Amino acid sequence: MKKNVHVLTALSVAVGLCMGSSLVLADTAPTTQTAPTSGQESTKLATSYTTFAGSTSNSQALVTGLRNGSTVVLVTPATATTPAVQTTFTPATGHLGYGNVNIALSLAQAELTAAGITQPTAAQIEAALNGGTVAGPKGPVQLTGVLALRADGQGWGNIAKALGFKLGDIMSAAKAHGPVPDSADIAHGDKTEKANHADKADKVAKADRPDKPDHPDKPEKPERPDKPEHGGR
To answer: Which interval of the chain is the signal sequence (predicted)?
Structure first.
């Protein structure tokens, strides 16, 4: 009888140890984080830029249009004195990744804010992206266009600098909205610019080269005098 009790006790201890090990392994097993899907990134960006775009439909149209390089249709809501206005445009860049969509919208928002425009109309958003002249609080404002600069092959760092901003500040603001571009996208365009500088330098060098001096005309050979006639013998 005692022998059976000892056997049962040993089995109970073994089962307990196995269960304890399973619990420890379960607690220490690494958790796998799921990367956000394309739909989640699109929704997050659209939600983040709703205030800037003026409405949920406008922000979704911006994100979708910049992402796919497709036509963007924005609507400026009607007010007590003005009717609703629809603005249609095609992004100058074509297809963009979500990180590039984010920084493009962040730069456009910063450019308009710097011009004193905090609640932009659809037409003003278009100008901030593709370039154009808009009415600002202090008169007409010429906007270069974030996407227009990008379409020329410039990197985001150069674009931010051209618009009077620091890329670090723009990136910090963009991170609050969603994904940001990787280093390759940020530097995109540097090779093109270097090539342009090389071409210009080559043209200048060629222009500075002095013209080859003209060869002097060779002197004409003097005419030989006529031989004297011999007298008759």
So the answer is: 1-26
In whole angstroms, give the CA distance from residue 118 to residue 128. 12
pLDDT of residue 50: 95
Instruction: Say what the pLDDT of residue 178 is.
Output: 84
Burial call 98-134: b when 16+ CB within 10 Å, e when fewer: bbbbbbbbbbbbbbbeebebeebbbbbbbbbbbbbeb
Measured distance CA(168)–CA(161) in Å, rounded: 11
Q: Report the alpha-carbon angle 61-127-165, nearest 5.
A: 100
Under-70 pLDDT residues of the chain: 1-36, 188-233
Q: How far apart are CA 92 and CA 95, in angstroms?
A: 9
Look at residue 227 and give its three-state secondary structure: coil
Cα gap 61→72, rounded to integer Å: 6
**Whole-angstrom distance, CA of residue 125 vs CA of residue 128:** 5
Angle at which helices 98-114 and 56-68 pack, to 10 degrees? 120
DSSP structure class, residue 140: E
Confidence at residue 140, expressed as pLDDT on a 0 to 100 scale:
94
Tell whether the torsion through CA atoms of 135, 136, 140 and 145 is positive or negative.
negative
pLDDT given at position 199: 46
